[in-house]
Backbone:
């Protein structure tokens, strides 16, 4: 007997649990974007990735930024589980990661980021070669670039799901499959535009 819920059931469950909390979810996301976004933007602006040294520097800085962002991921996980369990939740809960086992949150984020970077090495090398290649060389590099991009995408999806599971285990001592399913539906099946739409509809 199949005990897993379908996509439609996950979406319905997510909408039911999120009803009345869309403002909180959007507010939490905006807080993270306003803090992490400018840091990433400044890195993109100041670091020249057209050189090998610049590329290494860029990914080194980005790695530490991702570790910092992992604390917000932990807080966001806490926020969603509070909503799922019917407990009071606020956008400020995204900062819970700074007090709720921050070392473990950084460790989880660090391993996931490191794996992603290692998988992206071929893509980074090809991208660097494309930047410095002639027009004819660019055409020959497009196929391996496309294959590496697809491979990196699937690894990203897998690592994201694994990260969700690990962060739920970190912030919740009441970890259960139904809560994991609803959390996944909220974070992966409901994009921000849809979340914002329901928030406006509730207002």
Residues:
């Amino acid at each position: 007997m199949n005990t897993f819920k379908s996509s439609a059931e996950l979406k319905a469950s997510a909408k039911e649990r999120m009803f009345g909390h869309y403002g909180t979810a959007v507010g939490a996301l905006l807080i993270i974007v306003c803090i992490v976004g400018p840091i990433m933007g400044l890195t993109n602006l100041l670091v020249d990735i057209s050189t090998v040294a610049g590329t290494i520097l860029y990914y080194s800085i980005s790695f530490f930024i991702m570790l910092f962002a992992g604390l917000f991921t932990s807080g966001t996980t806490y926020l969603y589980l509070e909503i799922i369990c019917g407990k009071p939740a606020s956008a400020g809960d995204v900062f819970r990661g700074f007090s709720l086992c921050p070392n473990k949150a950084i460790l989880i984020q660090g391993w996931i980021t490191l794996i992603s970077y290692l998988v992206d090495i071929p893509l980074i090398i090809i991208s660097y070669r494309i930047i410095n290649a002639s027009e004819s060389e660019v055409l020959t590099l497009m196929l391996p670039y496309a294959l590496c991009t697809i491979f990196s995408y699937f690894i990203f999806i897998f690592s994201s799901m694994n990260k969700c599971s690990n962060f739920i285990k970190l912030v919740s001592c009441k970890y259960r499959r139904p809560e994991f399913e609803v959390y996944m539906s909220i974070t992966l099946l409901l994009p921000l535009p849809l979340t914002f739409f329901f928030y406006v509809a509730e207002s």
Summary: The first helix runs from residue 7 to 18. DSSP finds seven helices and no strands in the chain.
